[in-house]
Amino acid sequence: MRPEDILVPTPSGVCCKRGDFHIDPTRPVDRALITHGHSDHARAGHGAVLATQETLDLMRLRYGENFAGTTQAVRYGETLTLGGATVSFHPAGHVLGSAQIRVECGDLRVVASGDYKDRPDPTCAPFELVPCDVFITEATFGLPVFRHHDAEGEIAKLLRSVALFPERAHLVGAYSLGKAQRVIALLRRAGYNAPIYLHGAMDSITRYYQSRGIELGELRLVRGTDKAALAGTITICPPTAMKDLWARRFPDPVAAFASGWMRVRARARQGGIELPLVISDHADWDGLTATITATGASEIWVTHGQEDALVHWSQSRGLKAQPLDIVGYGDEDDEEAVAEATESDAE
Amino acid sequence: MNRFAELLDRLTYEQSRNNKLRLMTDYFRRIEDPERGFALAALTGSLSFQHAKAGMIRALIAERTDPVLFALSYDYVGDLSETVALMWPIDPSQRPNATPSLAEVVETLSTLGKAQLPARLARWLDVLDETGRWALLKLVTGGLRVGVSARLAKTAAAALGDKDVHDIEVLWPGLIPPYTDLFAWLEGRTEKPAPRHAVPFRPAMLAHALEETDLAGLAPADFIAEWKWDGTRVQAVAADDGPEKMQARLYSRTGEDISKSFPDLIESLRLPGAIDGELLILREGRVQSFNVLQQRLNRKTVTGKLLEEFPAHLRAYDLLVDGDEDLRERPFAERRTRLEAFVKRLNDPRVDLSPLIPFTTWDELIAARADPASAGAGPDADAVEGVMLKRRDAPYVPGRPKGPWWKWKRDPMIADAVLMYAQRGHGKRSSFYSDYTFGVWTAGENGDELVPVGKAYFGFTDQELREIDRFVRRNTVDRFGPVREVVHEADQGLVLEVAFEGLARSTRHKSGLAMRFPRINRLRWDKPPREADRLETLEKMLQSIEQRAGRQNQMELVVK
Question: Mind telling me how many Å the CA of B72 is from chain A's nearest CA?
Fold first, then answer.
């Protein structure tokens, strides 16, 4: 059996004809399997959705109760039979509830990674290596210039800056699902016990994380806080909010941004970032290449990001590799941020 | 090196001038000699070792990484030094703990033979961290580009001793890195170093751009007008250096000594004084276009042939020093009279006066600006970039004070063109598609087709850049390496309003013409591509330019 007999890449996502489902489709379909709750992977309007409980909850928070016709929750490691295919979900280490999806037909095993990272994250289950024949990988940071250091070091940099500028507020731009909560959890682990302030757009998702037992300490909404009282504090907000009128309520704010993109100076400067923090929820180059090797897959499909480099690397290692031109992944940063900023202006 | 790297790193992210000054002054205060002196030299571009060529850095990384991965990375990051610093493969277990100091790096570089440079550089790169590698590569390739001008770095040093930056500028040409005498004076430990340089650069005075609406608030009688020539601004300084000996220097607008590139002009500076003027290429008395001047500016080695083909000329605007008398406090009207006498005394074919534009009302000046040929610029009108307005009573003040000097450029030409290809930018714009090739309509074999007429990479705001970038990413129809072909059909595509300074015939372009200084004036999201301009329209513009030039040639013949 050929991999294409199991999964077919289409412009709107990977489709499994034998199981009659799509994985992370970018257009409404009858049956969708969703890897994680980020808006470019988890869209509203599908007939039936199969995902982890957390992913379903996060979709409900984002899109409302009627985001899909029907939903079904699946546990990590649980095996389901869909038509002629056997599927199971395995931790991807990306954000809370994120999963890789394993599809098996006959003797062929395909794993769709969604987004993943192989680094520790106190806010989600650690990445599980799933051996397979075909590995469908992301490539957000698929260039050898992307090597992320330990997030702890970046948090220490943030705390040094807070100590250095006690008269200024620190605004940390972070995506509201995953990154924001991870930064907070890392600050707590580094011994930072003061209240951490939140932009309104982060509120519901962060409370959801807390409800799932993730310890985030005392959190306060910025809304209504006196300007002077914000000196020396840390606020987590969507990246776009830093350039918004919203940011004027802070005393001489220091603009920080927690993202793997901060590894490249021009990206930080373009965004007017003074304190770049290289904290990523995606695997870096070493993580991508090590994972590809460890899966034992002989064929690699690359969904989005810097696919050219990763395809080249895989081929130079004697693996069969191809990019999948799926339209709509990877634009999430911009769109999500913009959507959040609009949501937040209810404040 | 690490502390210097940290300073550069922070400077690149800091936007505010004041905070940049604070960072640098703090560095000069904390760091000892000679380390801080070499840092000041690096920030002011005063280090004189043989710079490493980009090709050498590429060779180093090519030995260590896959060429395809390097090319893709460089394309993404957009900066060679940064790409190499980030990609440089490191074996952490092999890293020694001794990192070189900046002084060690600078001193080694100034003595090291070219053949030994690659191995030494590789050894340093092995021991430094990413920021250190980045700073080292910036230093050895000679382009720090951390948003700090030489003047700002000197201002930060001056702040160390509550001194005015002007004091440092005056001393500067006589100072040598690592400037221990300068720092000793700034810290109040010694007397001011004696200015050793007989022919120092005086910081230049610059003009603000004028809009036509500004004129209403200005009185014509207060101003003197002259042409703004399309060359490069220079300062020519000469002084007696012992009996019968003259020392002369030519400085760029920023104070860089460019004497070595212009020996022909240096010979002509035989009177002690300092002229502020425009460097031009004159052939048979006619000012050549900026393109011609650029061919000489780009040349590193000065050959006899170059001097003959591209004779340098100084067109004088202002006189800062006459003999040993400093005129900068005097009003412009008085300096101008002194300048006229000075140029007459000098009596050299390579140095002439920039003529004044007579006018009594703004309408007369507007007419002169619209048609310089008829207002005195004659056959050189094409080399006129606009007019300069200078207050009669204004002293010569370094920097860009608002009010005394105005520059008023000629109106650009405008055309609506369609975006065809986009390429990723470098530096600040890396990873954004910021270089745009655009075209206009012309009749082709299968009906109308777009033919490229130019390429522009500025003129738009950061917000517009993001919008175009998004458009490019979503409307790519083909890719060629770093270049993306963007949809450009009659009903689908993006119309760019392009402003440009001139048109010339070109055999290099399929369209047969080339734009001078094109930039994006506006985004016309509202305009369907089918309504963009046609090649015929540009042809007409070009013909009218040529007719004007032709008319002038004929007039000259008649006069002769």
Answer: 7
Does residue B480 sit within a domain?
yes
Please state the φ and ψ torsions of residue A205, each to the nearest 5 degrees: -65, -40
- Final residue belonging to a domain, choices B409, B442, B469: B409
pLDDT tens, position by position, A26-35: 999 999 999 9
The closest alpha carbon to B311, from B227, B199, B228, B231, belongs to B231
For residue B119, what are its two tokens? 């191995």
Task: Return d(Cα B296, Cα B299) in angstroms, integer.
Answer: 5
pLDDT of residue A326: 67
Strands A7-10 and A13-16: antiparallel
Taking an 8 Å cut-off on Cβ atoms, the answer to whether B431 and A269 are in contact is no
Q: Are residues B82 and B130 in the same domain?
A: yes
Contact A306 B72 (CB under 8 A): yes
A275 with B86: Cβ contact below 8 A: no
- Specify whether B397 is located in the same domain as B421: no
Extended strands (E) in B241-327: 246-252, 273-283, 286-287, 312-322, 325-326
**Contact list, A311 vs chain B (CB under 8 Å):** none
Burial (CB count within 10 angstroms: exposed 0-12, middle 13-18, buried 19+), residue B174: middle
User: Quick check: is B169 in a domain?
Assistant: no
CA distance B68 to B62: 10
Beta strands in A150-309 (DSSP E): 170-173, 196-198, 219-221, 234-237, 254-258, 275-277, 299-305
**What is the CATH topology of the domain spanning A151-277?**
Rossmann fold (3.40.50)
- What pLDDT, in 10s, does the model give residues B21-49? 988 999 999 999 999 999 999 998 888 77
What SS3 state is found at A263? Answer: helix
CATH number, domain containing residue B27 = 1.10.3260.10
The reply to whether B472 and B361 lie within a common domain is: no
Phi and psi for B225 in degrees, rounded to 5? -115, 145
Task: Report which of A161, A165, A33, A163 is spatially closest to residue A98, judged by C-alpha positions.
Answer: A33
Angle at A123 between CA A117 and CA A124, to 5 degrees: 55
Q: Do residues B425 and B365 both lie within one domain?
A: no
**Integer Cα distance of B179 and B156 in angstroms:** 14
CB contact under 8 A, B12 and A265: yes
B101 found inside a domain: yes
Amino acid letter at B219? Answer: A
Q: Which CATH number goes with the domain that contains B322?
A: 3.30.470.30
**Per-domain residue ranges of chain A:** 3-145+281-331, 151-277
pLDDT digits (tens, 9 = 90+) for B258-288: 898 899 999 999 999 999 999 999 998 899 8
> Which residues in chain B touch residue A264, judged by CB atoms under 8 angstroms apart?
76-77, 82, 86, 430-431
A274 vs B contacts (CB less than 8 Å): 13-15
Chain B interface mutation, best of A265, A327, A331, A338, highest count of B Cβ atoms under 10 Å? A265
Domain-located, residue B257: yes
Q: Do B428 and A145 touch (CB under 8 A)?
A: no
Residues whose CB is less than 8 angstroms from the CB of residue B307 and which lie 6 or more positions away in sequence, other chains included: B263, B264
- Name the pairing type of β-strands B483-486 and B476-480: antiparallel
pTM: 0.64
Tell whether B365 and B471 lie within a shared domain. Answer: no
B370-380 pLDDT, tens digit per residue, is 888 888 888 88
ipTM of the complex: 0.88
* Contact list, A273 vs chain B (CB under 8 Å): 13
Number of domains in chain B: 3
Domain that holds residue B366: 208-409
Q: How far apart are CA A139 and CA A291, in angstroms?
A: 12
CATH 3.60.15.10 corresponds to the domain A3-145+281-331 = yes
Nearest residue of chain B to residue A276 (CA atoms): B13
